[in-house]
Amino acid sequence: MKPIKPGIELSIPYYSLLELLGDSLNASVYKAISKEKSDSLFIIKVLNRPISSESQRRYLTQKVERLKIIHDPRVITPDSFDCSSNNQFITRRYFPGKTLASYLLEHGKVISLADFFNIAGELTLAINAVHEAGVIHGGVKPNNILIQADTNAIRLVDFLNPVDIQEISHFIYDPGFVADTLAYISPEQTGRINHRVEFSTDIYSLGILFYQLLTGQLPFSNTDPLALIHSHLAEEVPPAHRINPQVPSIISDIISKMCMKEPEKRYQTGMGLFADLHQSADQYQRKQQVDTFILGLRDHTRRVIFISKMVGRDTEAQHVLDEYARVVAGKGFHSAFISGLPGIGKTRLIQELQQPLVENKGYFTSGKFDQYQKNIPYSSLIQAFRNLIRTFLTESDMRVNEWKQQILVAMGNQGKVITDVIPELSILLLDVPV
Fold this sequence. Notes:
CATH class of the largest domain: Mainly Alpha
Distance between the termini: 50 Å
Number of domains: 3
Helix content: 25-40%
CATH topology of the largest domain: Transferase(Phosphotransferase), domain 1
CATH superfamily of the largest domain: Transferase(Phosphotransferase) domain 1
Low-confidence stretches: 162-170
Shape: globular
Mean pLDDT: 84
Number of strands: 8
């Protein structure tokens, strides 16, 4: 039993803290007991980085209420998000299980196919229940999954994560964050591509987890966060059966479908995925092997699916890519101007640059002139520069310092004028008078 953190006074109303269960950059997790009902156990997650934004605190409170519409025994949603004194904390019901990460450490990194089908099926049904309620979990990973070793009962937890991958700063380089969070995020969650974060983002993360359960390793294991993000964006998941020959090839195909880069090519529903897993499990139970079959036949959704593929602009896209190729080849600065009526596809055409930019580890930023922001001079340029500076802030201290020096030289004595319209620049130039 871990003691409560020494030297830290924690006062949580209505609860008595019993022991510290875990600690991370973002929060400390405690087992607690209700002062009113001594037989009621809870988990208290105390934020190590209090949220100063009133709008974000209000958002988290509202999300707690929205999550209460999820009614599934495999899901534990938070009971409340509260503030008391200098502490902000999230409360949920206690479940007497270990995290899936701890379970794998104790029972071996590779589990049997029988255990896999049980765990994978339960997790898929949990995700389906969440999605049916109109909720995206956004943080499917071993530390957010609880399991009882004797019964293999599964609980999906931790729906409130105040950290936005697009807003994080230097702690992106923390080894724990890279291994425990960044390893499981979907391409669209990186903030480096302009795909919507939809329900299939959880399917992608679940696919990474399935791969780990069957092979004992992650498909992308870079320790450098930017290299890991690049892998999520540009590299295909290696077939699981090549790592573990005991894995049927059709299971490898299921995982590959879950981890497609384009969101619309993945499974769109938990029930569609569960149907294929159930068919595989049934065959394995009957004859200890799984034959190949057509995937996704029962994957039907009532939701609108946004296709990421561009249609009818191949000539224009190739022209843009050719100009970019000349820049990469060192043939000087090139610019292209794209004009057209609203809704004709200008933004989508520019997004064709994202894939080659990722492959060359370049930077992509964009801004859009909004008809409702006509009174703001240079609004599009300001938006583009703010997004670019946010990207810089996720890099290493050495790279941040390099950008700092280059920007200071370029700004000269105009720093204050620029930081007034691009506030993120003040964070980049921290401790430097502007």
